[in-house]
Amino acid sequence: MNSPLLRGSAVPLAGEEIPIIGAEVRSLVTMALSRGATSVTIGSGRDLITRASARTIADAWSTSGHGVAVTIDWPETAASWLRPANRFAAASTDLWIMLGPPLGWAQMTRRLLWSTPWKPSRTLLTGGVSDPRALELVGLHNLTGIAGTTRAGSAWHLSADNRIITTPESGS
Predict the structure, then answer these.
(1) In which domain of life is the source organism classified (predicted)?
(2) Which of 65, 76, 99, 110 holds its CA 20 to 30 A away from the CA of 84?
(3) pTM here?
């Protein structure tokens, strides 16, 4: 990766951000618990819907009896995303959860890869950024081990050979 910033040819995925639904939240909590997490850091885009979805995830995680180390947000467009990336990666946490509009998420993720010790294998994504087109904005080869949930609550992970492996609805 020569630069963490996507160039002008990167076109954001069409459509508005959609509020997170129960199946996604249940799937994320189930996945985090299955990984032995007791503390998570939640990062999201700054639009109102995404921030409300981040609060929903934080509430569900807290209700499960565990803690949220930090909740941060990042802009959809920025010069570098360095400040939010450093705050996100520096949190003392077992697992990172990310959500938001795909383009901002991709820019933030590229900055995380470029400038921090963040590990995709310790990260879960919501359905909004689980679209293969969003993952391709970062490059599948950069995201080995990342996992997430579809909007329907099906868990998935990215294998070492860059294949997206989906399992039946895990959050139901």
Answers:
(1) Bacteria
(2) 65
(3) 0.90
Strand partners, 98: 43, 125
Residues near 15 by beta carbon (within 8 Å), at least 6 away in sequence:
none
Q: Please, what are the averages of pLDDT over each run of 10 residues along the chain (172 residues)? A: 52 67 96 97 95 97 96 89 94 95 92 95 95 92 96 94 81 44
Measured distance between the N- and C-terminal CA atoms of the chain, rounded to whole angstroms: 38
Beta-carbon contacts of 20 under 8 Å, excluding residues fewer than 6 positions away, are: 53, 56, 57, 99, 126, 127, 128
The C-alpha atoms of residue 89 and residue 59 are separated, in whole angstroms, by: 21
Q: In this structure, is the dihedral angle defined by the CA atoms of residues 136, 4, 47 and 14, taken in order, positive or negative?
A: negative
Cα–Cα distance measured from residue 132 to residue 44, given in angstroms and rounded to the nearest whole number? 18
Beta bridge mates, 158: 164
Grouping H, G, I as helix, E, B as strand and the rest as coil, residue 157 is strand
CB within 8 A of 51, min separation 6: which ones? Answer: 44, 45, 73
Phi, psi of 72 (to 5 degrees): -125, 165
